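Weekly modeling sync, notes
Attendees: S.R. (lead), two postdocs, one rotation student

Agenda item 3: backlog of single-chain predictions. S.R. asked that every request posted to the team notebook include the full sequence so nobody has to chase files. The rotation student volunteered to paste the first one in as an example of the format we agreed on. Action items at the bottom.

Example entry:
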Amino acid sequence: MRYLPLTPDDRAQMLGVIGVPSIDALFRDVPAAARREALFDLPLHAGELEVERELSRLAGLNRPAGAGPFFCGAGAYRHHVPASVDHLIQRSEFLTSYTPYQPEIAQGTLQVLFEFQTQVAALTGLEVANASMYDGSTACAEAVMMAQRVNRRKKAVLSGGLHPHYAATTQTLAHAEGMEIVRLPAAIDAEAAVIAAIDSETACVVVQNPNVFGVVTDLTGIAQAAHAAGALLVVATTEAVSLGLIRSPGEMGADIAVAEGQSIGNGLNFGGPYVGLFATREKFVRQMPGRLAGETVDAEGRRGFVLTLSTREQHIRREKATSNICTNSGLCALAFSIHMSLLGEAGLRRLAALNHGRARMLAEALAGVPGLEILTARYFNEIAVRVPGDAAALVEDLLAEGIVAGVPFSRLDPAAGMDDVLLLAATETTSPEDIAALASALQRRTRA
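Predicted structure, as returned to the notebook:
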């Protein structure tokens, strides 16, 4: 057994050197009550062929998103990723050290981080961006912590349109930091409630655009109200492709923009790994978490790249660290940057327009189904629909026909009292035939 290299004689020899009679003697300090006498209820070891068969059987239980009509969104979106992305991320120029502290051997990595930051800054309409974070939700939580450092206040207001997972992640980190989080109730259109919740103690306001229900909002009113109270505006975006069509957070007055970059260059991947985007205004750059790659010249005047800022907890002055984020999602950021480079500005705008067009097609088809109410009036590629009865039960019912009909909002926020609300997304991968199949299946159920 090549995976079990120790023989009984090997173990006996090592125990003899240590000076104990058995392996059990190594655990004598563990109280007997805390020890387990029997084996866990897990399969016993098997040969390589048997393991491969079992894992193949388990893998066969999964349903690929491309196996039929698929309308899931709610923070993770199915987009076409060109084959060239997967090919290019494997080039040797990028296979340098994990941590690019030594620029002389990590120019490939550092340059792509620099280009990535440039792309993120352009997308968000802000001056500076970092070299990525773990994902959108942790980037959102870090933005709240950053706002606390900037204006030394301890209260954050979270919009009722913020993705519940982003809100929960932020609450978890804020609790450890002693911050007060005011999480507003889930709301399709949350602008008025957000403005009403801002006061002189507010460090920041966190909104999402498009929000979790797909609603696109002009955020300038919220930005003005926040700034009048001395608070920062944090804008979260879960669908990065939307930044190719709607006004950027920076244009609407955001002080910090965070986003999930999965939609560009990265597949669904069963929920991860993903890549967090983080951008802010230049005056706040020293409070920004994560690392920042910069451009410079070497001793001979040649263009080069280095880590310009990297305020992380394992550095010498760790008590001055702005974050405990100790890495960036390098591979996912690379895939994002390559896909963005292949698209270019014109390509991204065309892709965004195509997404919106498919969503309009979806909304028009569902508007003709009796008993359904479309709740999202202004949308990019995702809409919320009120269905007769329980949305989760409807999704399970449609799975029998091979249709993945979206995400019930109750799955994201069971306590919201929106059990009849269904979130549906349509991207460039959604065909007219997929939309027709969904509308037809819903028509049959409403007639019944």
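Discussion: group reviewed the output briefly. The mean pLDDT is 93.
Action items: rotation student to repeat for the remaining queue; S.R. to check formatting next week.
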